[in-house]
Recover the amino acids of this structure.
């Protein structure tokens, strides 16, 4: 009887252990399955686009006829596959006449339009007449007069900000991914032109094109100079799109978008000269802008003017001059660079500031630009007061009470404006 009881107890304990082990193994299987189901592939922003692969494989292209009296012609080139289907990108290609300055080769430039824009023939024409092979491409699936049947995504809010997934490659269908890929393919197309010097290629973009230019500067290793006009990063921290498009996302969705598609994830790898051009009241606000222009590893120049109009404006002469000064450095002595302005220094009494500058062209005007307003940057009132130029130093007395934001604005004898980095008074809430 005792032996039977022992066997019963031993058998019961053995069964209990076996059942426990079976349930434990099942629990581990279920846990690992659920964990893998809720995790996703993480992509390093630095390898999001394989730029070298794009740049060494020029896209197939078909060319139209040149219009009489103009230097531009239509071109359609192979785009990034979109939702599993092949696409084409429409662009205007401008080619200069005359003697090429680099051993029979011309410099080149990529021209990136903004929101609601398209491929602008007159933009490519302008740069072709300035001596550049210019490519102005469309980034909204459009042809010269209508949407292409095989165009890529349009440039609407949903195409830019919808939720997307990583593991199945859906992120490649996003407008930003498609646009950067189209620009890289456009760069490869320029390199393939026999009259182009591949080591003398610039890029400039306007508004959303400036946003893309900021990303490209950290992605494309063969660019020589970049000029984003208006556009910047940190739009998830402050911008109209933060409120309308990014805040409604879940934290996971928002972090995923920012990690891949906000310029703040790419500008820190930029090593080329960058010229940041903006206005005091732009929709790309100065707090996000200030964080953006401090990220690149290369040399940065800033031009923030009071209430600079926001539009597809191709006539900011400071943009042309900056690009020329980099591309034609040591080639055209007449192409003088823009003045270089230091950070502002505050005197010990905290009542005045100063900057130093270097310039090959005389600086004829210096001002302290400032605002005492808080709230939305686009609604703030800005004022200027004269600053004193003494050799290569500019000084100014700060208004009382201390402005919420201020900087030094210089103008050289060509009428070209450059500015110091801005100072935001962090003790004041500045949306």
């Amino acid at each position: 009887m005792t032996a039977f009881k022992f066997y019963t107890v031993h058998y019961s304990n053995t069964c209990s252990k076996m059942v426990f082990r079976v349930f434990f193994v099942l629990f581990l299987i279920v846990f690992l399955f659920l964990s893998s189901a809720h995790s996703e592939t993480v992509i390093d922003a630095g390898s999001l686009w394989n730029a070298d692969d794009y740049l060494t494989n020029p896209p197939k292209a078909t060319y139209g006829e040149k219009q009489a009296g103009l230097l531009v012609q239509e071109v359609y080139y192979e785009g990034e596959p979109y939702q599993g289907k092949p696409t084409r990108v429409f662009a205007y290609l401008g080619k200069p006449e005359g003697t090429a300055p680099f051993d029979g080769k011309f410099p080149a430039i990529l021209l990136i339009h903004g929101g609601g824009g398209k491929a602008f023939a007159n933009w490519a024409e302008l740069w072709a007449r300035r001596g550049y092979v210019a490519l102005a491409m469309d980034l909204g699936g459009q042809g010269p007069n209508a949407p292409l049947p095989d165009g890529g995504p349009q440039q609407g809010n949903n195409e830019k900000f919808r939720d997307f997934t990583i593991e199945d490659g859906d992120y490649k269908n996003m407008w930003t991914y498609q646009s950067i890929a189209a620009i890289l393919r456009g760069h490869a197309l320029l390199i393939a032109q026999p009259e182009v010097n591949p080591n003398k290629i610039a890029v400039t973009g306007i508004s959303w094109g400036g946003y893309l230019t900021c990303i490209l500067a950290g992605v494309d290793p063969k660019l020589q100079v970049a000029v984003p006009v208006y556009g910047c990063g940190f739009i998830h921290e402050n911008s109209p799109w933060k409120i309308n498009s990014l805040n409604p996302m879940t934290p996971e969705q928002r972090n995923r978008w920012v990690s891949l598609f906000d310029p703040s994830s790419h500008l820190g790898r930029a090593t080329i000269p960058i010229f940041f051009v903006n206005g005091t009241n732009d929709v790309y606000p100065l707090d996000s802008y200030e964080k953006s222009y401090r990220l690149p590893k290369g040399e940065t120049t800033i031009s923030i003017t009071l209430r600079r109009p926001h539009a597809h404006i191709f006539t900011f002469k400071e943009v042309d001059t900056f690009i020329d000064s980099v591309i034609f450095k040591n080639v055209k002595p007449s192409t003088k660079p823009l003045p270089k302005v230091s950070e502002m220094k505050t005197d010990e009494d905290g009542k005045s500031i100063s900057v130093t500058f270097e310039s090959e062209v005389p600086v004829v005007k210096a001002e302290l630009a400032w605002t005492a307003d808080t709230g939305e940057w686009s609604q703030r009132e800005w004022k200027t007061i004269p600053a004193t130029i003494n050799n290569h130093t500019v000084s100014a007395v700060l208004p009382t009470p201390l402005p919420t934001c201020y900087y030094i604005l210089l103008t050289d004898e060509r009428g070209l404006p450059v500015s110091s980095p801005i100072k935001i008074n962090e003790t004041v809430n500045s949306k």
In short: Residues 45-327 form a domain with the Rossmann fold fold (CATH 3.40.50.1820). The first strand starts at residue 61 and ends at 66. The chain has ten helices and 19 strands.
